[in-house]
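Protein modeling request. Please complete all fields; requests missing the sequence field cannot be processed.
Requester role: graduate student
Desired output: 3D structure, token encoding
Chains: 1
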Amino acid sequence: MPESTQCPQCKSLYGYPTGTSMMCPECGHEWNPNEVTEVVSEETDSSVVKDANGNVLQDGDTVVLIKDLPVKGAPKPIKAGTKVKNIKLTDGDHNIDCKIDGFGAMALKSIFVKKA
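Delivered output (116 residues):
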């Protein structure tokens, strides 16, 4: 058994062994710890940024907003359907840097965009 008892689904730290597998008391997920070590390392790759539909985004992509986004200090929100060209991916909560016509430089969250 590996030393890590963290659930790969909900990230709970309270997983416990049930013979040949591990069980999470919080979400009920059961997993084989020998198989999960490879999958967890791929999923936790921080350089992968996905849009609202799960498509992988890259620098230079064009995206479309899926929701009206209010902007502090601006009289109107950025409307859903606004196309944003040539995005730059960054680390952090707002993981997209871009320039929107009429608003200027902005930082967006990838959950509010879809790949065009």
